[in-house]
């Protein structure tokens, strides 16, 4: 039987790799397989260099756009070498691109990784640039994945919350009552500050299972200063990124606190900040006895998830694996679904999440 297969490609704010997933979409979506590809260190540094104002930005951006286009295309081609399906069944690729700047308050967001290059190199139809139409319609352009969560994880009898802990964290509220709107927003940092701080001190890219954080003590004064950032109490719709949560911001708050806090205690404090900001967002919602399902790389940080489960009100806590989708592949699968929406001329955004005036067909199509 001929099936429609879509390839989702996600390279998120953590810069931990390029996730490629294949999904089959007929009446229902089913996951086929996924793989993560390395981002070379030089490319990682070039991306990071563009997330803050830099010299000669246009030239750097132009070059990196093409370089990432090739990197995404090579990852897709490699992924398809061991595909357990006939690649002629692929309808399209949905490529998120790499966010280098997200400034919804200034009316723009920028994801790069040239889709023309991907289409030329893979000989596949590519859909990309999913966020800017939502922004043009008055939305935040993010988070987009709640629409996918609504499609695959909503239950008719249980209220559910899906929590993504990536570089940033975002929640999706899925009421069982389908007359109620799905809502969701970015809650603030996911792994980004934990990654940045351990990288500064040990050169490693993340705090494995949260062990370094677990060996320190939370500094309450610093925690309160970090939590006083207006973003945490702003009403949704809201989204954020590296523009807000970066090492310079953290170091400025530490400096302004006028106290000496050891590096390990700062890591413990950052884990507590991450857990508390997520939990405050979840607990502020009035869904009755929600089930909480976590996805994103943060599920592997046992110390963070244990702390979260002691802070949040929920009737059940687990990962999206219980709902049939491994937590590492939810976002990549979502971009496969978004490609399907674009190709079928269906909306990809949820105005109740992003704040856009209406539903919109997202993204551009770059024909094979
Ligand atoms: N074993 C582990 N222990 C602790 N943290 C981990 C572990 N494995 C992954 N992580 C964290 O997960 C992060 C990657 O998460 P993920 O791939 O969901 O991010 P992303 O897709 O870049 O984010 P975003 O959703 O913001 O776009 C890593 O940077 C790391 O901090
Ligand atoms: C601008 C941008 O790239 N935002 C990402 C980021 O990573 C998590 C969170 O912040 C979310 O808003 C979004 O990603 C997912 C894929 C989304 O749009 O739902």
TrEMBL record:
<comment type="similarity">
    <text>Belongs to the anhydro-N-acetylmuramic acid kinase family.</text>
</comment>
<dbReference type="InterPro" id="IPR005338">
    <property type="entry name" value="Anhydro_N_Ac-Mur_kinase"/>
</dbReference>
<feature type="binding site">
    <location>
        <begin position="12"/>
        <end position="19"/>
    </location>
    <ligand>
        <name>ATP</name>
    </ligand>
</feature>
<dbReference type="GO" id="GO:0016301">
    <property type="term" value="F:kinase activity"/>
</dbReference>
<dbReference type="InterPro" id="IPR043129">
    <property type="entry name" value="ATPase_NBD"/>
</dbReference>
<protein>
    <recommendedName>
        <fullName>Anhydro-N-acetylmuramic acid kinase</fullName>
        <ecNumber>2.7.1.170</ecNumber>
    </recommendedName>
</protein>
<keyword id="KW-0067">ATP-binding</keyword>
<dbReference type="Pfam" id="PF03702">
    <property type="entry name" value="AnmK"/>
</dbReference>
<keyword id="KW-0119">Carbohydrate metabolism</keyword>
<dbReference type="GO" id="GO:0006040">
    <property type="term" value="P:amino sugar metabolic process"/>
</dbReference>
<keyword id="KW-0418">Kinase</keyword>
<keyword id="KW-0547">Nucleotide-binding</keyword>
<comment type="pathway">
    <text>Amino-sugar metabolism; 1,6-anhydro-N-acetylmuramate degradation.</text>
</comment>
<keyword id="KW-0808">Transferase</keyword>
<dbReference type="GO" id="GO:0016773">
    <property type="term" value="F:phosphotransferase activity, alcohol group as acceptor"/>
</dbReference>
<dbReference type="GO" id="GO:0005524">
    <property type="term" value="F:ATP binding"/>
</dbReference>
<comment type="function">
    <text>Catalyzes the specific phosphorylation of 1,6-anhydro-N-acetylmuramic acid (anhMurNAc) with the simultaneous cleavage of the 1,6-anhydro ring, generating MurNAc-6-P. Is required for the utilization of anhMurNAc either imported from the medium or derived from its own cell wall murein, and thus plays a role in cell wall recycling.</text>
</comment>
<comment type="pathway">
    <text>Cell wall biogenesis; peptidoglycan recycling.</text>
</comment>
<dbReference type="GO" id="GO:0097175">
    <property type="term" value="P:1,6-anhydro-N-acetyl-beta-muramic acid catabolic process"/>
</dbReference>
<dbReference type="GO" id="GO:0009254">
    <property type="term" value="P:peptidoglycan turnover"/>
</dbReference>
């Amino acid at each position: 039987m001929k099936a429609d297969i879509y390839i989702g490609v996600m390279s998120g704010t953590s810069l931990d790799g390029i996730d490629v997933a294949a999904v089959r979409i007929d009446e229902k979506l089913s996951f086929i397989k996924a793989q993560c590809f390395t981002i070379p260190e030089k490319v990682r540094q070039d991306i990071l260099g563009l997330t803050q104002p830099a010299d000669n930005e246009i030239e750097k951006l132009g070059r990196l756009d093409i370089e990432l286009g090739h990197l995404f295309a090579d990852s897709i081609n490699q992924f398809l070498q061991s595909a357990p399906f006939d690649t002629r069944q692929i309808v399209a690729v949905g490529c998120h691109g790499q966010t280098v700047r997200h400034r919804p308050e200034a009316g723009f967001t920028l994801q790069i990784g040239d889709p023309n290059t991907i289409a030329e190199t893979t000989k596949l139809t590519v859909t990309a640039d999913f966020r800017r139409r939502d922004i043009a319609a008055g939305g935040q352009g993010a988070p987009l994945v709640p629409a996918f969560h609504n499609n695959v994880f909503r239950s008719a009898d249980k209220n559910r919350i899906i929590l993504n802990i990536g570089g940033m964290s975002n929640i999706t509220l899925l009421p069982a009552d389908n007359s109620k709107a799905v809502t969701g927003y970015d809650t603030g940092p996911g792994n980004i500050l934990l990654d940045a701080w351990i990288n500064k001190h040990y050169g490693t890219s993340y705090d494995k299972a949260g062990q370094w954080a677990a060996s320190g003590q939370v500094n309450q004064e610093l925690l309160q200063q970090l939590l006083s950032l207006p973003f945490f109490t702003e009403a949704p719709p809201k989204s954020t990124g590296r523009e807000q949560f970066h090492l310079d911001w953290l170091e400025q708050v530490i400096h302004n606190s006028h106290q000496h806090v050891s590096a390990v205690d700062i890591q413990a404090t950052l884990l507590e900040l991450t857990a508390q900001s997520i939990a405050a967002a979840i607990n502020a919602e009035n869904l009755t006895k929600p089930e909480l399902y976590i996805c994103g790389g943060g599920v592997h940080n046992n110390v963070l998830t244990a702390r979260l489960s002691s802070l949040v009100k929920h009737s059940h806590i687990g990962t999206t694996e219980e709902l049939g989708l491994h937590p590492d592949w939810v976002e990549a699968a979502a971009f496969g679904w978004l490609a399907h929406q674009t190709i079928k001329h269906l909306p990809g955004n949820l105005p109740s999440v992003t704040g856009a005036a209406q539903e919109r067909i997202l993204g551009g199509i770059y024909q094979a």
